[in-house]
Design goal:
Blueprint: H1 2-8, H2 15-18, H3 30-56, H4 85-115, H5 117-122, H6 126-136, H7 138-157, H8 160-171, H9 176-181, H10 183-189, H11 191-195
Length: 196
């Protein structure tokens, strides 16, 4: 998350003097806008989603080998010892809220401190520079909200998993009819004939 905050601040004034690897990102170009606004937002969402996914991942250990693999009680979030389903759901909600809140606070805090690097070196106006850095980080917060509210649902409307499956079936098609209907149509429709 620190790298995300640093990348979001790449075009901030006086930051490239202290972090010279940001100097090639000149303001006013489309590639710079994508690299400093869109990419940090997507990476922050991926990191937070990964942390949230670890809550629900399946854990196989010797005590639970008798349970089915689809049992939700095998997730990390369900290992806190609550017997009731609503207690487990409440715990998951609390942990999810905590992770998202800590990710947001961490991004703003680290971004504000990176923004104030110059103020720390000259020891003048440190609190003002940190406050300006936290306001500057609102651009990253807004871009995260835009990605979550508009871009991510639009990508889900494209149904990427279904598109991937259709393209894979077209690649493995044997006849032109398989291209049109897909091989799964023939295997499911011909099963009664093979049984007879």
């Amino acid at each position: 998350m620190t790298a995300v905050a640093g990348l979001a601040l790449a075009t901030a004034p006086n930051l490239a003097d202290f972090l010279p690897f940001f100097q090639p990102l000149l303001p006013g170009r489309l590639a710079t806008g994508i690299a400093t606004v869109f990419a940090p937002a997507v990476i922050a969402i991926l990191f937070t989603s990964l942390a949230l996914a670890l809550l629900c991942c399946k854990i196989e250990h010797s005590a639970s080998r008798t349970r089915s693999s689809t049992d939700p009680s095998l997730g990390v979030a369900h290992m806190h010892g609550s017997v009731s389903i609503s207690g487990g759901q409440r715990f998951i909600f609390k942990v999810t809220f905590f992770i998202i809140t800590m990710a947001a606070v961490w991004l703003v805090l680290v971004g504000a401190l990176l923004f104030a690097v110059r103020a720390f070196t000259i020891d003048v106006g440190i609190s003002k520079s940190i406050a300006n850095g936290s306001v500057y980080m609102s651009t990253l917060a807004l871009s995260i909200i835009v990605v979550l509210a508009f871009i991510f649902p639009a990508l889900l409307l494209l149904q990427p998993s279904r598109l991937w499956r259709v393209l894979r079936e077209e690649r493995h098609a044997i006849t032109p009819r398989h291209l049109f209907r897909g091989p799964s149509f023939f295997t499911s429709s011909l099963k009664p004939l093979t049984l007879a």
